[in-house]
Amino acid sequence: MERKEFRDLATPEEARAAIDSLSLEGGLERVSLEDARGRVLAARLDAELDVPGFDRASLDGYALRARDTFGADEADPARLEVVGEVHAGEEPDVAVEEGQAVEISTGAVMPDGADAMVPVERTDIDGEGDDVLVRTSVAPGDNVMFAGADVAAGERALGPGTQVTPRDIGLLSALGIDEIPVRAPPTVGIVSTGDELVRPGEDVASSRGEIYDVNSYTIAAGVEDAGGEAVLYPHAGDEQDEMERILREAAEECDLVLSSGSTSASAVDVIYRVIEEQGELLLHGVSVKPGKPMLVGRLQNSAYVGLPGYPVSAMMVFRTFVAPAIRAAAGVPEPRAATVTGRMAREERYAEGRMRLMPVGLIEDSDGETLVYPVDKGSGATTSLAEADGVVEVGPETDYLEEGESVTVRLFSPDVRPPTLLGVGEDDPTLNRLLDGLENPRYLSVGTRPGLRRLREGVPDVAVAAGPLEREIDAAELGRWDREWGLITRAGNPREVEGLADLIERDLRFVNRTSDSGLRSSLESALESVAADRDASARDLRESIDGFDLGLRAHESPARKVIAGEADVAIGLRETADRLDLGFVSVDEQPVRALANPDRTGKASVRELAAALEAEFGTEADD
């Protein structure tokens, strides 16, 4: 038999390129939530409902009308009539009118008429128990978690490529999702070759040079750790026909075939001849030690990699070249340590005298240094953990963590992969589509004003702002686009709403966005123009609109109130109205800007977002 010689060894880079040229993907499948942990999402999942789905009390206390408490304090409390009580899990059977209050439990549905609640510790019951004395004033929305405050309908929940963790499962459960589309793990057929091999559990004849098959099991474990599905085949001898039969069977059933042994240049190592005759041999021999006699090729419709026979060499080659390719096909991140050291991205004050378990996110700056930023929406918010990568323990003696201070982050799992891009700001459907094309971005829909504030603090890579900017900001504009906004009505516009004048002059129930939203800013600007035309006060016009001061957080949430019959009109985007089959009355177009941290413009993910914006809108980013 002709002996195969190693003449021109491939470089490690060439070996990686050869493996990368192979298709290892296992396709797509749907799995139940019970089987979702560790799987990789194949498509974006958007929230189809608000979480919570109702306005709920954040504390034990009394639900009331905020205006009835204005001016109340310890010396001069407001006296309100207690007209009922509402407990968690029950539907309120009482409404709050002027001068009234309802006793309410944490998590209970806010009764009609109430727009705030006061904690029980800031109240007293009078002697007969019919009235409550409120010893503080509250504003509309105080101590209330409004519908959609945790997760808002229409909001991007999880993006494609997300490896589902237990906290993600909690988020999906809260959204009522019981089945998700995921990448099917690549199936990897494992074939150990050599007449001398015996499977563990069988008798081994050392006198004949037999040894136990180590590679099949160690490689199978490595495949599973990398996110693949290992399939063990009977070991093949050194006879070419038998070896060919087993390899062909594995190739018919698997996305990748891994063999170990029979790859060297000796006369009995013939596996490369099988690949040359039955497929395509891309590479034979790599300039590494250990692991020189590696094969890369195709066998029928399957990818193929031949590993050395020695267990140490086989695992070294597998870990260095093959495992990353399996992880890439499965969407599984590279492993890392369970703790990470980084620098605080901004100062965080804390002085409560108790140890704090602070959820944090991780992001890298342009120099590759790890920055740590707090992630905390409150104890009732599921997404506090969904948006975090780990926890920093803050001791009870710590008053604050300084910007730049070194901290140790305990990751939620060793598999945590920090985002390549951290964006904050306005919730926008166009932006969501652009983010789908990036690798592992994280976007926090905090609103325009908080997004710009965080950008000034230097934490995120990018902030997205909608509407007029209140002041100049030191940032590089990556791109901008316009979106049409206006008034959303029920389908067919049964109340015949024609414009902003109807909100001011007619008895219409309106749903606004929060004051942090760019849509709210544009609405206020438009109302100022109306006020100027009428020689009236913009404040008076705002106060004449029923519901102006109570806003919801994300762009679809107000429209959902219209669908539920809880409002006649809502502020929103034309895209939202079209998607939900609702009526729309246009008011104006609003600019949306993607602004980059000036210190991060050279970061690869920021450049990728800029390129996506240029491709979408044909504009170039500022230098």
UniProtKB/TrEMBL annotation:
GO terms for biological process: Mo-molybdopterin cofactor biosynthetic process. GO terms for cellular component: cytoplasm. The keyword Transcription regulation does not apply. Keywords: Molybdenum cofactor biosynthesis. PANTHER family: GEPHYRIN, MOLYBDOPTERIN BIOSYNTHESIS PROTEIN. Gene3D superfamilies: MoaB/Mog-like domain, MoeA, C-terminal, domain IV, Molybdopterin biosynthesis moea protein, domain 2, Molybdopterin biosynthesis moea protein, domain 3. Residues 189-328 form the MoaB/Mog domain. SMART domains: MoCF_biosynth (SM00852). This is Molybdopterin biosynthesis protein MoeA/LysR substrate binding-domain-containing protein. Pfam families: MoCF_biosynth, MoeA_C, MoeA_N, PBP_like. The keyword Nucleotidyltransferase does not apply. Pathway: Cofactor biosynthesis; molybdopterin biosynthesis. GO terms for molecular function: molybdopterin molybdotransferase activity.
